[in-house]
Amino acid sequence: MTTPALLPLSGRRLPPLNLGASAFPHHRATLRLSEKFILLLILSAFITLCFGAFFFLPDSSKHKRFDLGLEDVLIPHVDTSKGGKNLGGFLIHGQGHDEHRHREEEERLRNKIRADHEKALEEAKEKLKKSRDEIQAEIQTEKNKVVQELKRKDSKPLPPVPLPNLIGINSGEPADPDIREKRNKVKEMMKHAWDNYRQYGWGHNELKPIARKGHSTNIFGNSQMGATIVDALDTLYIMGLHDEFREGQEWIDKNLDFSVNSEVSVFEVNIRFIGGLLAAYYLSGQEVFKIKAVQLAGKLLPAFNTPTGIPWAMVNLKSGVGRNWGWASAGSSILAEFGTLHMEFVHLSYLTGDPVYYNKVMHIRKLLQKMDRPNGLYPNYLNPRTGRWGQHHTSVGGLGDSFYEYLLKAWLMSDKMDTEARKMYDDAIEAIEKHLIRKSNGGLTFIGEWKNGHLERKMGHLTCFAGGMFALGADGSRDDKAGHYLQLGAEIAHTCHESYDRTALKLGPEAFKFDGGVEAVAVRQNEKYYILRPEVIETYWYMWRFTHDPKYRQWGWEATQAIDKYCRVSGGFSGVKDVYSSSPTYDDVQQSFFLAETLKYLYLLFSNDDLLPLDNWVFNTEAHPLPVLHLANTTLSGNPAYR
Ligand code: DMJ
Questions:
Q1: Ligand 1, atom 6, residue with closest C-alpha
Q2: Which of 100, 299, 383, 460 has the fewest CB atoms within 10 Å distance of its CB?
Q3: d(CA 262, CA 256)
Q4: What distances in angstroms separate CA 2 from CA 16, 260, 318, 556, 607, one per listed residue?
C-alpha cells in the first residue's frame, strides 16, 4: 500500500479514503460533510455498544478476567499464600472481600472506558468543525513529518572516501572568437531545450515540444521521474548554466523518489539516472546526488536475482520483481543492457565502500568469459535462466554496442589496471574487424551485423559511436596497432558523415545500407528518421580530441546548423520522421539524451581540451563523465573502503 508520505506533495491527488487504524488520523480529514455525519453515527453506535456490553452481558468475571491490554488496572499480585491462584502473573482471588475489590475494579474500568470514548468523541467533533483548508494543512504537516523522517533514515551518511583527482572542471573557453561563437550557439540551444522542458514538461521524463506537454516511454516505467532533469544536469554544469543546475538539484532533492510501483529498464535507469547523478556529484560535490544514486542502485539490485546472476532487463522498483522484454529471443537478456552496468557499479562500490555492486558486475564478466563465442563474437541474446545464448545475432549497434564500449572504458576507468577488461575488448574487436567490418564498392568502411551465419550490409546510426571507441582504444592496443585503430575510427567517422551528407536535411537516418547499388543511404521508410541521436557527433568529438583535424569541427558545425534549422520548434527540439524529405514532419519528442549527449558533445567539440581531459575522465555511454579511479588493482582491494 502506498503510504501517505509517498504521495505527491502538490496536493493534486488526495489519498483514498481508508478507515484502517493507522491511516485513520490522516484520512478522516478529507471526508465531505455527509461523510462526517456517517462517521459520527458510527462512533456513537460504537460507544453505545461498549456500554451495552458492560451493563447487559452476563458477568463473566467469576470465570476469567478481561484482557484489555491495560496492565496497569490489573492486580500484579503474586502472593498465593492467601488462597489465591497465580495465573500468568495475575492473581485470581477467592470469594468474599476479593469480590468487592473485583467489582470496584470493574467500575474503575468502565469509568476509564467511558472517559476515553468521550474524549475521542470530543476530538472527532473538534476535527469536524475545522475548515477544509485547515484540515488539509494538518494533513500536509503530517505528510511532511513522515517524508522528513524517511529522508533522515534514507540519508545515512556514506563512508568518507577520498575523492579521485578531479582535474579539468573549468570553463574550457576557446580563444578563437569564431569557435567561441559556435560554442555559444550550442549553449543557447541547450537553454532553449531546457527552458521549454522547464515550462511544459517539468518533472515528466521528457517533453513533447509541439503538444507542449510531458512525455514518457516504457523504459522509464509509469512514473514521473524527471529523466530530462537528471540526464541534463552535468551538461548544465559544464556550460555554466548554474541557475538551471540549481533548479534541477532542488527538484531532485524534493521530488525524486524511487519507492514507486513502476517497472523500469535497468539499463536505461543505470546509464541515465545513476550515471547522471554520479557525474553531477563529482562535478558539483553536492552530496544529494550521491545519496540518490545509491538509493536508486539499491532498487535495481533485485534485478540480479536470476538463476545465473545475469540481470533481468526490467525491474519493478517497489516489488523488486524482474522480467525480460517480450520481444527478446527466447526470454533472453540483452548484451548491451546487462553489459553496460560496469562503470556505474564500480563507482557505487567505490563511493559506498560496499562491494555488492562491484561483485554483481564482475560476476557477469566471469560468466561471459567462460562461455563459447561463435567466431569469437558475442551474440546479443543471453538467457538468464539457462545461461545459454539465444539467437546468434551480433551487432556493434543496437543490442550490442555499449557492451564493447564498457570493456574498454572499464580498463580506462581503472587507470589501465583492469587488464582483464582490456583483453576482452581487444579479443572482441579483432573478431568484429574480421567478421563485421567491410569496405563498400564506393570505398566506405562500414560495420555490418551478423545474423545466423551471414553478414547484413547495414549500419545503424547507433553503430556510429564505434568510430570514437576505436580512437579511444587506439592507445594501448595489442601489437601496438594504435595507428591502425585511429585510422579505423577516422574511416567510420567519414562513413557516418556521408550518411548525413546524402540526405536532404543533412541529418543522418536511423539505419543505412551498403547493398544493391546503395551506399550509406536508408532504403526502408521506417529507417529514415532522426531522433536527435548523438553517436555521429560523439565520434566527431573523439576524433577531434585525438587528431585536431579541423574537419571534425566543421562536420560538427554542419550538424549543429541542421538540428537548429530542422529540429528546432518554438516549444523545444523535436526528432524528424524523414531526413530525405525537405519538408520534415516532427515526431514531437525531445529525447533526454539530446540534452545529456548531443548538445554536450557539441559543446565539448567547440571547447578547449582541458575541459574534462580524457586522461582523467571517462564518459559513460550516456555521456556522463566519471573520473578515473586510481585503484591499486582490479579487485579494488587497494581501496580502503573495501577492506
Ligand atoms: C543513449 O541513451 C545512449 O547513448 C545509449 O548507449 C544508446 N542510445 C542512446 C542515444 O541514441
A1: 621
A2: 100
A3: 13
A4: 10, 8, 10, 48, 47
The answer on whether 621 is annotated among ligand-binding residues is yes
List, in sequence order, every residue forming a beta bridge with 265; answer none if it has no partner. Answer: 314
Tell which residue, 191, 265, 195, has the closest CA to residue 225. Answer: 265
Cell numbers 455527509 correspond to 34
433 catalytically annotated: no
Across 66-80, 199-213, 236-250, 551-565, least confident range: 66-80
Of 67-76, 188-197, 328-337, 566-575, least confident by mean pLDDT is 67-76
CATH fold of 177-630 reads Glycosyltransferase (1.50.10)
**Residue 396 corresponds to which amino acid?**
V
CA of 404 to the centre of ligand 1 (A): 14
* Torsion angle of the four alpha carbons 354, 356, 358, 362, in this order, in degrees rounded to the nearest 10: 160
> Dihedral of CA 208/211/212/216: which sign?
negative
For residue 487, is pLDDT > 60? Answer: yes
Q: Cell 575510427, residue?
A: 489
Does the annotation count 420 as an active-site position? Answer: no
The domain spans of the chain are 177-630
What pLDDT score does 19 carry? 26
Task: State the average pLDDT for the chain.
Answer: 85
449 in catalytic set: no
Instruction: Round to whole Å and give the CA distance between 372 and 388.
Output: 10
